[in-house]
Write a structure and sequence with these properties.
Elements (H helix, E strand, L loop, with lengths): L6 H18 L6 H8 L3 H7 L3 H8 L2 H17 L15 H12 L1 H9 L9 H20 L7 H24 L3 H27 L4
Helix pairs in contact: 1-2, 1-4, 1-7, 5-6, 5-8, 6-10, 7-9, 8-9, 9-10
């Protein structure tokens, strides 16, 4: 008699894998750990998923990755203003609100992709994600501040700010679980980050290098 697979058990396994991957990373989390958290035998997992990679793919899907990239690009574009970025920009509205809502709803998936995806097909996602953000940010800066010389130092500092932004995103989503708390933390981080970028732009415009 063919064994009947249950959606409820599949979901328990996937939820347990998501939790383990977000806390310990794909490489360190084992099938035994996932089985214990799901409350099933390790052999049961293989009836639903052929291997750990398949489990990962059921959680971090191409659709999720594409949507995160799309929303991030929209948020960067939303910062474009004739006089520069606005430190008090409302993070609950527009592109920022859309991105933060998406991150809050997919908290652990984002933590896994941005912080713990080594050993998976998305192991190189973060460098590519950062490169895309850097390219768009520098292009936006050229449009807003055509008189600004984008020196090697300026580009280096933009890259460092963006890298810290990704690390900060992982830290916030790891620390906070409720959407309201996540939004407050991102609002505080965004204000600090924009202040830093504005200071960098002012420094570059003053020709202090």
């Amino acid at each position: 008699m063919a064994q009947v697979l249950k959606d409820s058990i599949r979901k328990r396994i996937a939820d347990a894998a998501e939790s383990r991957f977000a806390e310990q990373g794909f490489e360190s989390a084992t099938i035994d750990m996932i089985a214990r958290e799901a409350g099933v035998a390790a052999g049961t997992i293989y009836k639903y998923f052929p291997n750990k990679q398949a489990l990962f793919r059921s959680i971090v899907t191409p659709g999720f990755v594409d949507e995160l990239s799309r929303l991030t690009r929209g948020r960067i574009a939303a910062f474009a203003r004739p006089g520069g970025m606005e430190p008090t920009q409302d993070t609950a509205a527009g592109a920022s609100g859309e991105l933060l809502g998406f991150l809050a709803r997919n908290r652990l998936k984002a933590v896994i992709l941005l912080g713990w995806s080594r050993g998976t097909e998305y192991g190189d996602f973060v460098p590519a994600y950062l490169q895309d953000m850097e390219t768009r940010t520098l292009a936006q800066a050229r449009e807003q501040f055509p008189q600004l010389e984008q020196t090697r130092t300026f580009r280096f500092m933009v890259r460092r700010i963006l890298e810290e932004s990704v690390r900060g995103t992982v830290a916030i989503l790891t620390e906070f679980k409720e959407e309201a708390d996540i939004r407050r933390a991102f609002a505080a981080a965004l204000r600090c980050r924009i202040a830093g970028i504005e200071s960098l732009v002012a420094w570059a415009l003053a020709g202090e290098e």
